[in-house]
Each structure stands twice: as C-alpha cells, then as structure tokens.
What we know:
The protein folds into 2 domains: about 400 residues, MFS general substrate transporter like domains (Growth Hormone, Chain: A, Up-down Bundle), CATH 1.20.1250.20; about 55 residues. A hairpin with a 4-residue loop joins strand 1 and strand 2. By secondary structure, the chain is mostly helical. Helix 11 runs parallel beside helix 17 and helix 17 runs antiparallel to helix 18.
Amino acid sequence: MNTVTTEESPPQTGQAADRQRSRRRLILAVIAIAQLMVVLDATIVNIAMPSAQQDLGFSNDHRQWVVTAYSLAFGSLLLIGGRIADLIGRKVTLVTGLAGFAGASALAGAASNFEVLVAGRALQGVFGALLAPTALALLTTTFTDAKERAAAFGVFGAVAGAGGGVGLLLGGVLTEHLDWRWCLYVNLIFAVVALVGALALLPRHHREKGVRIDVPGTVTVTAGLFALVYGFANAETNSWSSAATWGFLAVGAGLIAVFTWLQTRVAHPLLPLRILLDRDRGAASVAVFISAAGLFGVNLFLTYYLQQTLHYSPLKTGLAFLPMVAATMATSTVSTSVLTPRWGPKPIVPVGMALSAAGLVWLTTLDTQSTYATHILPPLLAFGLGLGLILAPAMSSATSGIEPADAGVGSASVNTMQQVGGSIGTALLSSLAASAATGYLAGEQPTPDAIAQSALASYSTAYWWSAAFFAAGMIVCGLLFRRGALAHDPDTARTVHM
Length: 498
C-alpha cells in the first residue's frame, strides 16, 4: 500500500520538542503570510482603483474587470489547485504559488495599459488558487496537537477575517504616500519572506502513487464555477434578467450538478463527497459561505460611506477599519483556544452570527451627521467580534477529520465556499443597493441632499440584507452543528465528538 509522507512530526520531549514547536510557529507565520496575500488582494486594489483608472485611462464600464478577472480565475480553479497540492506535494505547490503570485503582481503593477493590468490580475487568481488551499492544508497536517491546532486556527481565522480590513488600510497608505502600483508590488515583499520560510522550514510531501487527476470532474467543476462567478459578476453591471446573467448561472448550476454526479462514479474523485457530507463540515462550509457574502456589506459599502459621505481620505478609511480587525483577531484566538475546545462550534458560531448581524443592523442608523467614535466604532466592534467567533472555529471544523491525502482538496472546498459566497454577496448586495438608490430618487429632484440621502438608503439596504444573511446562518449552523467539543486524533486525522 502506498503511503503519504505528511508534515506531521512524531512526539518528542525536551529540547527536541521545543525546537519542533518553534519550527511549527515559524511554519505558521509562513502560512499566515501566504493567506494574507490572497485575502488582502481582494480589497487592496479597490482603494487603488481610482488612481489606476486615471493613470491608465480606462472607463467605469471596464473597471469591474480588474476585480472580476481575479475572482473568476481564483474561484473557478480552487478545487483543482487543492488536488494539485495533494498530488505533487504541498511544499512544491506553495513555493510555485508564491513565486507565480509574485510574478503576476509584478506584471500587473508594471502595467502600461488596461489589458496588461487585467491579465496580471487573472494570473494572480490562478496562482492564488494554488496558494489558498495549500496554506490551509499545511495548517491541517502540521498542527495535530489539539492545543497547538486551536491556536494555529485562531491565527489563521484572524487573518482570513481581518485580511480585507488590512487590505483597505495598506491600500490607503500605499496609494496616498507612494503610488497605486505599490498596492500590487507589495506582494513581492510578502512573497519573498514566505518563500524563504517555505524553502527553509517545510518538509517534502510526496504524492501518493496511483492517484490520478479526475479530468471529467476537473473540467465540469472548473467550467461550472467559472460560469457561476461570471454570472454573479455580470449582475453587478447588468440586470438579473439579462441573458448574460441568468444564462451563465443556469449553465453553472447544471455543470455543478453534473460534477456532483460524476464524483460518485469515478475511482479518484476530485472532491470526495464524504468530505462535504459530514454534518459538522457541512455546517462549517455554510458558515464560511454566509460570512463571505455578509462581510461584503461592511467592507465595500462602509468604505463608500466613509469616503463619499464623510469624505475620509483612503488612509483614514483604512485606519477606521483597524478596531474591527483587532476585534476579529481577538475573538478568533479566544474562540479556538478557549471556547470551542470546551463547548464545540455549535454554540460559538451561531453566537458569532448573531453578534455580526446585530452590528450590521446597528450600521443602518448611520446618516450624514454620524461621528466615528459614537456611531461607527461600536457597530464595527460588534461585527468584528462576531466574525472572529465564526471564521476560526468554522475553518477548523471544516478541515477536521479529513484524511491527510485529501487535505488539499478538502481545504480547497472551504476556500471555494468563501470565494463563491463573496461573489454572490458582491452581486446581490450591489444590485439591491443600486435599486434602493434608484427607488429613493424616483420622483425627486436630484439635488445634492437627495443624492446623499439616496446613497445612505443604498448602504442601509446592503446592511439589512447582510444582517439577514448572518441571521439565516445563525439558524442553519445552530441546527447543523453537533453538540460537544471536537477531539482531533493526530493518528487517524478523524473528528470525534466528546
């Protein structure tokens, strides 16, 4: 029987154990940097967009492709990226992803025209699809001790939840004090640090002989996810009744259905359905999906509110998100190291959903006279505290009990839920917000005050719908998650309920 050499280490004592713990902490830093690169690139370019548009001279109709090109490549290739990590080795895949992401960032940053910028962003998405699942798979197979695993997933969850806010802050600093191109060039710094760490610290992971790529599954799921992401992205600029919207969504849904059918009939499925059919992992996937969809309501529309209504600078806007980032990091760590080991995810994740929903409802009260300390900071803190209670336990639960040989594709399934959730949130909330603004102005004179109030109406609509996502998540996760703490068995990589 063929075996897989994973990143797990045998139990040791004394100085050798201390060295191994120190090594694992450094590996965690490498993983966190890789994940941060992927997450912050979803928001850092938003801050740079006006400057890039002015510099390269592309129209408002074209600017969505700077974001869409990244999400299309990233979302559609995640599952095959995770399986590649399982087959050729996670160290090789991570190093390839880091080097490729850096090269793509350099290409996009040096772009002399719109087409090169979009091509660079698409390549970022391709290599991001290698990085994201590999980073989570490495976390799953490196940290097998229950206490260390909880702390590691706390850090990872904090990065996943706070990365968008970090991207806004970093984008503001770089755009305001350097140039919009540095929002892309900064990835080279992250990549070099992570590359050095990966080459020095990660052991080799050899593929399992005899395993093959599921070609029919790869083709159908890649095309299906592409069609879904493209359909939702198209809804941002066209109506939901547009053939380019519902047509791609229908094709995507059909291809995903075919992919699911195929996975029950091939010898080496791209995504073994046992990974998703576990009740806790299914609940965790729902939590990640809903969080990504709802998070958009804060990151994008609050950015618009701060800059367009309160006239914050890009840097000040980024700084405004820092308390939310800190709150997310704090509860991510506490939830995985203290709360979840004691009570399990069932009470923790729904409480986080409720807290985030409350923060979003609170944001609907903002107006043109709102102040940061009194009206914006409290709901931001509530939202951030809730997000930390959701993401870290959900990601840990989503990868618990997965066999080491399936760690990459299992991690990719979680990342896919996050990416598709974000795409759906982007399209749905943008459409609802635009309709609310149009409805408010119907029959009104387009005075500056009326336009400002219509913008507030659109933001409020987005917050209400985002809150509804989290409220639904609270109910679904409360019903699906099993009771009791999860015990991780490092020998079998199974999840056992206490």
